[in-house]
Design a protein that fits this description.
The chain is mostly helical. The protein has three helices and no strands. The protein has helices at 8-34, 37-66, 72-89. α1 runs antiparallel to α2 (37-66) and α2 runs antiparallel to α3 (72-89). The longest helix is centred in the middle third of the chain and has 30 residues, at 37-66.
Length: 91
């Protein structure tokens, strides 16, 4: 059996994504619990506000972890790509 050591950045990124997933599941539970469309929309909108922040945070951690291996050009492309994603999901 091979022993794998996970990097700190990987662990933090994964934990943030696990927390995000738990929030999504809890939001779904609340929607079912309240059983009202107006409250479900409020819950859904709240989660929609948090998701881009999770994306930015995990991307920032990942880029910071490999920053010493990135050229300026690649770094600019990453920033542009994240900007396009945020623009695309903007409501």
């Amino acid at each position: 059996m091979m022993f794998t050591v996970l990097g700190k950045a990987i662990v933090v990124m994964a934990l943030i994504r696990i927390l995000s997933g738990c929030m999504e599941i809890f939001a779904a539970y609340l929607m079912i619990r309240f059983n009202e469309i107006d409250k479900a929309l409020i819950i859904n909108s709240s989660i929609a506000l948090i998701d881009p922040l999770i994306l930015l945070l995990t991307t920032a951690i990942g880029v910071a972890a490999i920053a010493d291996r990135l050229s300026i050009g690649k770094f600019v492309f990453i920033i542009i790509g994240v900007a396009f994603i945020l623009y695309g999901i903007k409501k």
